[in-house]
Request: fold
Amino acid sequence: MDFELSPEQVAFREEVEHFLDENDDPEVFDVTRENMAQIVDTPKKREFMRKVGDRGWLGITWPKEWGGQESDGVYEYLLNEALARRGGPQIGKGVGIIGKTILAHGSDRMKKEFLPKILRNEVEFAVGYSEPDAGSDAASMKLRAIRDGEGWRLNGQKTWTTSAHFAEWYWVGARTDPDAPKHRGITLFLVPLDQPGITINGIWTMGDERTNDVFFDDVWVSDDYVVGELNRGFQYISEALDLERFTMFTFSPIEQRMEVLRDFVAAETRDDQRLGDDPVVRHEIARLATDCEVARVLGLRVVAKSMKGGPPPTTESSEYKLFATELSKRLADASMDIGGPGSQLRVHTEDAPMGGRAESTYRYTVIDTIGGGASEIQKNIIARRKLGLPKNF
Amino acid sequence: MRFAFDEDHVLFRATVREFLDKECTPADVRAAWSSHRGWSTDRWAMLAALGVTGLTVPERHGGLGMDELSLVLVLEESGRAGLPEPIVDTTAVGAPLLAEVGSDELRERWLRPVATGQAILGVGLSTTPYVDHAGSADLLLLQRGNEVHAVAPDQVTVFEQPSLDRARRLASVEWEPGAASLLANGDRAAAAIESAFDRGALAAAAQLLGVTQQLINLAVEHARRRVQFGQPIGSFEAVKHMLANALLQLELARPVVYRAAYSIARDMPERALDVSMAKAYASDAATLAGRVALQTHGAIGFTWEHDLQLWMKRGWALAAAWGDAAWHRTRVGAAVLPRS
Ligand SMILES: Cc1cc2nc3c(=O)[nH]c(=O)nc-3n(C[C@H](O)[C@H](O)[C@H](O)COP(=O)(O)OP(=O)(O)OC[C@H]3O[C@@H](n4cnc5c(N)ncnc54)[C@H](O)[C@@H]3O)c2cc1C
Reply:
């Protein structure tokens, strides 16, 4: 057992930090956007990610044959967490989810077309699993794909597709066999988003960010853009979701919010008493700090188990996602409470405590226990796969 | 002992509920969010006609002269409807405070218009520094140290402090205290400030009960209708238990809040303790219900279009106003276990 980073890993982390200091830019890094900060939705963010790619850091765990360095997953983890801590773009989607799935299951042609672009950040993806009637139950998706010549014709609707309004390619699941059991009749496609027949409508959220409804009206996709095998799409989606649970739900923003709260408590006086001397507050901080460490170690365990870029262990990533996102909410609750009357002020308001982090975090973290598989679904996964309990649906 | 409200309390509540169901729909609350002042003078006038704005104004100044036991159910309804109007600051806190420490002249000048809905009051205490609707208040009742002052809006500078709940237009207020504005000082002021604070905390707690109820109603409605895995999600025990926990928390908070209303109305010696227990509990109940309601709704609840956010944000904001749960628990601690 070894909880320390190796000297090489420490050096890598320092190199990353140095690079981030040099490229510090409030338009690229914004901690008050919390989880949505990770999205590469502006030219400046793209430019920044291209620089990350130029350093050879995108796809660092990938095989050398495909432009990677075959490094341990811990390097990818260190990079991603360093980016997340500053509220910067993250590598989760292109590199962590789509790239890895293409590496594992895609055709050579698909690898040649997409992998180099992902490594240079020349392409943005949107991920389309959810539909109005298929949320937690993603396997019940209905977007229909019907055989047409050397390809498929797609009709139907997706919803909650976060990056659709600026991405070039759509990573999308569609039903290719309506007669098979629901999770055996789905195929994954890559669809260019600028095609005729695709309509994208914005949906605005409580976090003040945009996500989208996407409508397909007779959109044709060539067989070349079928990912892996026909009707195996849901298996790939499940694997990709395991990846998402720890690449998209990073730990370092939680740690940073803990530090912000701790510093606030240490500095603030209320009713002539230092908040930091209040035993009730101290108790709360101690508990949260402990849980932060637990979350950090849980995350590391997932990384350690999926070294060399292999698939992450399912129940461990569910346990991490469940605990870290629920902790995130508890941390937001505590920050609101300890923040006092200023907690009701909006972020960027003059008097807002902790720079408004309490309020903005509160609004953003509500969704972490839903997106990427809700807490209840994680518990079902743990109960079924680790405890062997029966399914009830 | 009788663990029930009088019939006229219950009747009044029913009248207010019926009115709010018609005149304060979610669409109306949303309209208030984007309106200039954040609340509607028309709806306030209609509430005045029902007697709501004069509820706490003494009879000789044209009000109904009723106490917190009458008010608490009305406040609960106002929370359920997400009412944007300044019922907490004007009716629950401002009017009783002015009646208590105002000069005869000031009382004569302001309490009648408050009762008829023509004037609203803003209240700023050191424990609640952000004055709700300070920008549209006709008279501000402000604490400075151990003094209470009545200040006209043209004598203050208002700094907007945008709230996460856009129907609450918060501001900090800067002003120069003077002999002319002084209403009370010394022990009399201290007592008035404490009772004003307790009234505000009770009012926020009562509104939070209504907010919590509405959050649960919305979530239950959604859990009945939304189908995943071929079943309404309300049939999954994970969802059922989550909602049952939220309801339980509300049911626990309710009698404690009513108890606090009673203690204020009767001016019981344990008033502050009861109020703090009530506000801490009600804040926690609303926070939990907000979390649970959003979790139950899934992504749809996170959208701007969905009404859920109107109540979630009211709940979060009120939980932080008039003393947050931690502050009140500390006060409970000090009361039940005084320091040696
Ligand atoms: C901001 C945001 C961005 C998103 N981005 C994307 C994206 O880019 N691409 C994409 O495809 N999707 C995206 N999603 C969708 C997300 O994956 C879904 O919201 C999620 O899968 C949950 O589905 P739902 O919202 O329909 O909730 P529902 O499935 O309706 O769930 C509602 C409630 O019921 C509970 N529940 C459901 N089934 C069970 C069960 N069997 N047992 C116990 N409880 C259950 C849930 O836990 C939850 O509490 C995004 C969502 C949001 C909010």
Q: What stands out?
A: The first strand of chain A starts at residue 125 and ends at 128. The mean pLDDT of chain A is 92. Chain A touches chain B through 50 residues (CB under 8 Å).
